[in-house]
Structures are given as structure tokens and as C-alpha cells.
């Protein structure tokens, strides 16, 4: 008997199996499916196994967002100790609303070696793909399939500046990738096998199931894009709708030059379709529903007003002078998506 336990509580003869069932009856409101490679085939071992999915997240601060965006990095799955789970099994974890039992989101990935307590079992799963309630999970990985995740890291802060992407290869088969050109960013290096590489095209032969390759970029010192000031419906960075002034998506520019405080650049194409309204927007001197005359340069976010714009064969040459934004313009929402 341990000191400090309430009277009537025994430490021997406990029925941990029954305790596990009773804990699960209260906490296990989520479900997961288990896939295993058997004789080279992805085989369903069990479906809709009750569990408690504990999401492990990190916050990615975004100065213009109303709420910090949490990124799920891994999941601890708690379930009954007799559930048949093994190291490298592939799991679909279905996160449910505790009260209504509606599907909120699903997560998929490979799990590690389960850790068994007397009454519970904990399985850690590295989150590789995810979806919402209306999405369909992607198929389990094929035999010898490799997932290669590219993350985009700001070289100064060490933090992600845009969502990662996943590509697929096969164990033992050479895989070639090209580093993406990103407006307003300069590629510096990537890390693979603990080695730093500065080339923009690279080939390696995978021998593991998962690779995470961080691509490091610095911020360009001269403007590489512009953001139009638009007043309409738009989608916030957290995927909610709003109506009002916003600095819209990045539009790549070229031939950037400075003449004193004025700037000149080329915009190709001269116009683009606004994501929500469908209006074809361009830069010009006289503002209208389709012509914008105020914008900011990216990444320095300096304000300008158009003084001349000449369009030829789908390309616009724009000259602008510094603009002092009003308080309302200064408060415009900034969209970071580069659609």
C-alpha cells in the first residue's frame, strides 16, 4: 500500500483490462483504421477502432491573421492495449466532434512502435496527410512507395512561410526534384541526409519511406511582386470570408527600376481574375471596378499610386509614385496566398 492513497483503494488485484474498457467508454470518441503491408499488398487490419486522438500542434505566428494558425505535427492515439498495431503500420485517424460524433477531420500517416500501459496503449503517428469532413482520404501507400515532404523555411527566422508539399517516389528508384521559384524570395539551400546543398536540381535514391527536406529561402531585397488594393469579398488566410479592403494575392513583376522615389516595372499578364468576384483586375491611373490605382510592392510592402500604365500585347508597363495610405487603407487585410 502506497502512503497517501484514500482508504479502500487497493494496489494489488486490480483488473486493468476492465479499467481499460471503462476509460475507453468515456474518452474514446474518435476512430482509426489500420493498414499493413502483407506480401506486398496494403491490407486492412481493422476499421473504425475506438480511440482518443491527441493532436500535437505548433503555432505558426502570422501577424495579419486573427488567430494563430496551428499546424498538426503528430498524433498520439490512445486505445485498448489489445488492439493489433505494429511499428510502420499506416493509420487513418478520424477526429470526431465529442458531442455530435460528426467527423471533423481525418489524418493519415505511419505509426511508430506502440507503447502499452496496463490499461491503455499509446501509438504515435507522424501526420503526413490530412483532410476535412467532406474530403476523402488518399489511398494507403503502395509497396515501396516513398513520401517526400518539402517544407519552406524562412532562412532568417527558421519558421515556415508557406504550406509544405508532398511528392512520391519509390524505394531504390532515383528521384529528381527541382527547387521552386517563389516570388519575393531567393533560394539559399536545402538539407538532405544532414548535408547542405545549394543546387536547384537534385537527384537521390530513396531508401526510406519518408523524407522531410527543408528548403531555405531568404527575402528578396528588391520588389518581385505587387499586391493590388481591392475592395470586395475575399477569403482570409484562415479560409473564412470577409468583405472590404484587402491587399490581394501576389502578382509577379519584372524589369523593376527606380527613378528617384518613383518606380517602373512590367506586369505580365496585364490583368488577372480576382479569386472570389471573378473580375479581371489591372493597374491604371483612373480607378474603377476593374482598374486599381493603389498597390504595395512585395516583400517590402511599400505603398504606391499609379501615375501611368501602358498595355501592349497583354503586358503592362507601370510607373508609380509613393502613396501615403489613409488609416482605412493602412488597415487593409493582407492576403498571403500566392494563387
Provide keyphrases for this structure.
single chain; 339 residues; Thrombin, subunit H; Ubiquitin-like (UB roll); eight-stranded antiparallel beta sheet; six-stranded antiparallel β-barrel; 5% helix; elongated
Describe the structure.
With 339 residues, the chain is mainly β. It folds into three domains: 16-132, Thrombin, subunit H (Beta Barrel); 145-219, Ubiquitin-like (UB roll); 225-334, no CATH class. The protein contains two helices and 26 strands. The chain has helices at 16-27, 327-330, and strands at residues 30-38, 41-60, 69-79, 90-96, 103-110, 115-116, 121-126, 129-132, 145-154, 160-170, 175-178, 185-192, 195-197, 201-204, 210-219, 225-235, 241-247, 251-259, 262-267, 271-273, 280-283, 291-292, 294-298, 303-312, 315-322, 333-334. An eight-stranded antiparallel beta sheet has the order 6-7-3-2-1-4-5-8, with helices on one face. It has a six-stranded antiparallel barrel with strand order 16-18-19-25-24-23. The protein has a five-stranded mixed beta sheet with strand order 10-9-15-12-13, with no helix packed on it. It is elongated, with a radius of gyration of 26 Å. It starts with 15 loop residues before the first helix and ends in a 5-residue tail after the last strand.
